[in-house]
Structure formats: structure tokens, C-alpha cells
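Lab notes, practical 5.
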Amino acid sequence: MILATSGMMAQETVVSAGNWQVKANESNGKVTIAYGNETLVAGNEAEWGLKNSKTTFTSLTDIVISTNDYQDEFGTGKQLIVSGKTTNSPTTTITHTYYIYSDKDYVLTDVVLESNSKLEINYIAPIRSTASTQILDAGTNYFIYVPFDNDGWTRYETKKFGDSHPTCYEVTALFNNNTRRGLITGSIEHYTWKTGVTAKTTAETTLKSLLVFNGVTSKGGTRDNDEHGAVKANRVESSKMMIGYFNDWRRGLETYGDLCAIVAPKLPFKGEKIFGWNSWGALQTNIKPQYAMEVSNYFAEVLKPAGFVGADGLTYIGLDSWWNENFGVRDHGKFVKNCTANEQRAGIYWTPFADWGKNESAMMPSGGAGSYTWGDAWLRDSNGNPQELDGAIALDPTHPATLGRIKAEFEKYQKWGYKFVKLDFMTHGALEGKHYDESVQTGLQAYNKAMEYIASFAGDSIYLNLSIAPLFPAHHAHGRRIACDAFSSLGDTEYTLNSTAYGWWLDHCYSYNDADHVVLSGQALSINRVRLTSSYITGIIILGDDLTLGSDSGTKERLEELAGNKEVVAMTHQTKAFYPVEANLGHPAPNMFMYTVADTTYVAALNYDAGRRLEISIDFDRLGLTTGNEYVVRELWTGQESIATESFEDDVRRADAMIFKIYPKPIDNSVEILPNDATRCYYDSLVGEVRMKGASHMVESYVYTIGGACVATLQGAHDTVDVNALPAGAYFYRGVDAEGNSVVCKFVK
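Output from the prediction step:
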């Protein structure tokens, strides 16, 4: 719809699609974005430039506004295009486009600069508003600080409206913690630019200004010494940015992750969620071939029979740093062979962009790419100085020696038979600097080039797991460490869960998050339970204790007790990262997290305090359950059950954790869960049926999408469910037998 107002007011072009209304001032090109009756961003205008020389849209001439119907991979709707030209030389046309989708809770926007002469740009802001708007609801409104990477034990942090908000990276959420309504904004493209987000607010609901811009760098944030690299071209494009308004800010961040995965699809992974072990948890520099094989055998002989194993029957045994000091070439073959015999996959560790030796004149192993010293491949800043971070000098990701070294390393890993590679200190590869490849002009361009090269060697046979890495790009690896190093303490758990609480949605961009190795040694059983629970609700589960022959028997006993809880493991097979029930103010992690699978909701409650109990009260309405209906509330660590209709209260003991499974009460009042080895279901792809094996027949069957929608039901005695009519995808099956007991499984069609 295109409207024009007349009289003394400036004329406007208005585009409406669904709940969105986007208005452009025809005299200055400023745009106002509204959702329903609420103005989210007022007077938005692009800004761009080089270093400290910046230009805004209101300085342009020949402003033209146009609209058209539009459809792309994100949705169907309309475009609003605002263009103008600079008055100074070289004459540049700036095109600011807004993509408005009729059935989406977001709009997208980007800016393109074009000139007959070569431009040099290191800053573009598609979202820049200095006009105050009233957003959200009265009450507790927060802004989330999102870090660029997970180095230096950095944390996410929530800040109240009215407080000073630091510049954060790639995305943020401004939301009300009571109603959960939220504004989500950030960059969904991560090929060229590092993106900063700044906002100024005043109590209680005023958004005073908003800036989402390409070209951010800082010593403490992106770890850069140099300013952002400049793009030199006749055509310079910003990243595509999202502005979304959601009834639940948590769904908004997940939508943001989904959009990033549309732009750059996930690196495919055919396996199930990984269960395994990593040597850095306890053995560290003392990792030896014999020790690694003893751990492999312990998993095969003790933990797997106890039930601690992936849904595909596999576990991963991983070597970390110092394997290269303690393993010979033949040792790798023996270790991998031992893992394979134990139905395991072997993992290894490497830092592709870090030089720890720091010997400039020493010859570098370049994989046949040429004869180079380490100094030749160092990434230098604008003054020619090598860049050091975390005790290692950064390598140029575009240098032939760096790329040749990558090729040589991965060819070794493939030859030896490794199926998991942990890549550490990855931020080194994303630093701004002088690159060998002159076509690469920014740190992220260099990082993308090298990561694409790494992924090409990994193929679909090696799981790539990033550590100390930027949030984005995400599409060159399967997983990413969600925080920095964590070991056995309550503080380690709380620190890690800060990142889970506000970064859980990253598994919409990666296959899985990684909560770091879980170490139990030296702590009480209750603290062990907290630590293991934090891993179960975050992503892949990696143990880290010394599990060799002759190691501490007390640690093993506690591990076997906790890892042998089949109901908790079954939950972990079905779920991905849990999200917070409520947000906390500041940087402490929330105490409660949740996840819903079909008609079952899991709530994890963790007490980080060793001095007092944690009183919890859960309102079913806040969980999205139907108040008034009867639900079974089963605590999975203890097996204790109760029936509740609107809420439940409990105390989490000092330094302990509880996991509640909440599901509709069976009609015959039975709340018993079938033993894990009694009746199982599985998908038979040859005939397109979910089948039962075991003595019990089902009398009710339900098939749900991953999103929780019921797509098939079957009543009456049966032991197969025909799902041929369902489209390809992932599903959950839930069956109920004649005694009211349930069996649940996940299957992929």
C-alpha cells in the first residue's frame, strides 16, 4: 500500500505487510518501522564512511523512494527502497533497502554503495536511529550484552533500561522479563563484516537511540589492535540486518539463529549428539597412548553398559593439547584401532592459526606450499608488527604456508582415522591485519577463506568443534564451545551456564553447542551432579576426568552413579540446548532452564550456592503448559513423582541440581515409566513405519514434529505406526500401553 500525506507535513511513502508498517520521509529518506501500533525504530537513516569520516543519508541529493512486491528465501512481502547520491566526489549512489514480510515477525534491511570510482569503506550502519521511541512494556526491561567470542572467560550480561549499555557484537535482544516481548536486532550475514550493536535507553521503556553497524573492532571485544579492514571496490555492500519483534524474546533469538542458517546453512552432520571424553580435563600434558586406550576401554567396559552412550551407540575419545609431544606416528594407529574396536570414534586437537614457538626465523612446515619461515606467515598489524594473543602469535589465514599446513595436518588426521577435531584459539584467525592475499580485505574474509578450506578437508567424515572462537561465521564447523575453559567447581558450572542462558540459540546455527569437559574429581557428589547437569542441558557431553587404570576409584564411582541414570541420558538424546525460564539481571546465570519435546517439558534447576537451599516455584503458565490439567512431575535424578495442575514448588539442596520431567497424567492414573530395556520403538525406513519391539503393545500413539505439533495419532492395540504420509524430517513418537505407561523415541524420516 502506498500513501502520501499532504499539507504542511513532509510527504511519506508507506508500505504495509502483515503487522509491519514502514514509512519513508520523501524529503530526507528517513524511515520509521512500526509493528502493529508500536513504533520500534524512528527516523532510521544509513551511515557509512572510512575511519572517522562518516556520511549520513540526510546529506544526499536526488532522493528517490520506490516500492515493489518481493519474495526471497526469507519470506513473501514487499520492498521499500530509498536511494540517493552524494554531493561530493566521487559521486556515489546509496541504496537502502527494507524487506518487509507479510507473515514474519521481522524485517530485514541492507545498504549498497556504488560508484564509478573505487570506494574505500570500513563502516556501514544500515540501522541508525537517534529518535526516541517507547518500546516494550512497563516493568523489568533488559538489554543483552553479547560477546564477540568466548576468549578470556568473557560473559554475556543483561543491563536494565536506563543503565549504560556497552557495544555488543552481532546481535542483541531488548526485552521485558515479565511479558517476554522483545526487540531482536543484528546481522544475519557474516562473510565480510564484524558487526557492533549499541543502544541507549532511559527508564522504563524508552529506546533513545539504536545503532547496528558493520566495522566494529576493539581490543577487549574483537581482540583487534587495528581498526576494521576497509573494503575497496566500486560496489560495497553491508551485511543484511534483522529487526524483529516477538511475543517471546527467546523465540526471537532462535529465529535470528535460523535466519543466519538460511544465509549460510549448517555444515551437515549425520550423527547423533556426541557423548565422549577429552584429555585436557585432568590428564592434560600427561596424555599418553596407553592412558588414552585405558580410557577408551573404561568407556566400553563400564560406561557404555551403564547407559552413557550416544543415541547412535557411539562415544568419542578425544586427545587434546600435548598429544604431539607424547604420541608417535604408530601410536595414532593403535589408539584409533582401539577406539574402533570399542565402537568409538577417536578425536584429536589442533590450533591452525596460532604460533606458540614464536621463532621468526624457524622454518615452517608448509605442506609442500613452499619454503617459508614462521615469521613469513605471521599476521602483522598496520605497522608491520606481529600480533600476539593468549601467548601465541597469530598466523595469516590466507598465507600459502598456513593453508599448506592445514592441508598437511588434515591429511594426517584422515590417514590416521580421526573422526573429531577440536580446533582451538580460532579468534587468532579473525584478527584484522595485513594479509598475504590482497583480495582479502577484512579479518572475517580471511577467516572465512581458511575455514572453508578446513571444512573441505573434513568433509562429512570429521566432526569439527571450535573453541575460543567468534560466534560467527558458524557454517564451517559442526559445533562450538559455548564458553571458555571449565572444570569441576560450582563457579565453573555457573560461568558456563551464563553462556547457555543467553547463547543457547547458537545450536540453530551449529549442529550442537559444547559445554566443555565435565570434571568430577575433588568435588562432592552433589556438585558433580550440578556439573554434569549443566553439560546435559547445553549440548554435546564430554567427560574429562582421569579414567585410566589405577585412577581415583571414588571419582569413578560417582561418575558411574550419575552417568548410569538412563532416564537423564534418554532426555539428553531427545533434546538440544535448554533455554532460560527467566533471565537474570547482570552476569550471574539463571537457576532454571527448560526444553519442550512434544507434550513433555523438562525443567533443570541448579543451585550454585553451597551455603543454602534454593527455593523454586514454577508456574505452569510460564512454561507454556495448560493450567488446570493434571501433569506428572517426575524428578529424574531421584525418580520422585507428584501430580500438579498449575504450579509446583520444591527446594534444591545446597550445591545440587534437579531435573523435572513434566508430562500429561495418563488417563488411568498410572505414572510408571517403562524400563529402558522393556519396550522400544524404532523407525523402519524400508516400510515407512515406527515399530515396537518388546512384549507390550501400544493402545495410543502420537507423532510430533520437532516443534511440538501433533501430525499423526493411532488408537487401539497396535505395534506399528504407518508414517509414510509424513514428509521427510525429524519427529518424536510417544506411545502409551494398556497400563498407561509411556515410551518415547526420536526418529528421522
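Observations recorded by the TA: The longest helix spans residues 289-306. The two ends are 43 Å apart (CA to CA).
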